[in-house]
Amino acid sequence: MATQRTLSIIKPDATERNLTGKINAVFEESGLRIVAQKRLRLSRLQAGEFYAVHKERPFYGELVEYMVSGPVVVQVLEGDSAVAKNREVMGATNPADAADGTIRKMFAENIERNSVHGSDSEENAANEIRFFFSDIEIVG
Ligand code: ADP
Ligand code: MG
Question: What's the pTM?
Fold first, then answer.
């Protein structure tokens, strides 16, 4: 298996409930390493650009408002097949469909306030990592 990096975001519903450490423990127990991490507050411009792929979806406006409603923790996770591995430990978008033991099953409030973001392909991971981090901020 190839070592990869993926972009993760601990979303406002989770930072609000002080779940950063619990979610990070799930990543680390799965074998993923947190090789970069920072807590910040997204501007509407940044959130809108980050989720631009969903611009035509009916939930886009609400999604942007939610993502700017509180602090987020953006992180780079590294490990074997990190993109797919992270999607696996996150669980399905809708927590009602998420498997037992996944972050969304354990912590998400609903399909929107679902606690974590994870890149969905290697190409998107590279772009999303570059959106938030410079090379010297990532230490593997
Ligand atoms: P994922 O985060 O699992 O990759 P998507 O890329 O489809 O899911 O959606 C991005 C984010 O938009 C979701 O994580 C969630 O916060 C929000 N979202 C997705 N579908 C809905 C929906 N039907 N209603 C409200 N918010 C949604
Ligand atoms: Mg997605």
Answer: 0.98
Helix intervals (H) in the chain: 12-16, 20-29, 44-50, 60-67, 82-90, 103-107, 122-132
Strands of 33-40's sheet in order across: 33-40, 72-80, 3-10, 116-118
Using an 8 Å Cβ cutoff, are 27 and 35 in contact?
A: no
- Is residue 122 within 8 Å of 83, Cβ to Cβ? yes
Centre of ligand 2 to C-alpha 54, Å, is 9
The pLDDT of 12-27, averaged and rounded, is 98
Residues 83, 125 contacting (CB under 8 angstroms): yes
Which residues have C-beta atoms less than 6 Å from ligand 1? 54, 59, 63, 93, 111-112, 114, 117, 120
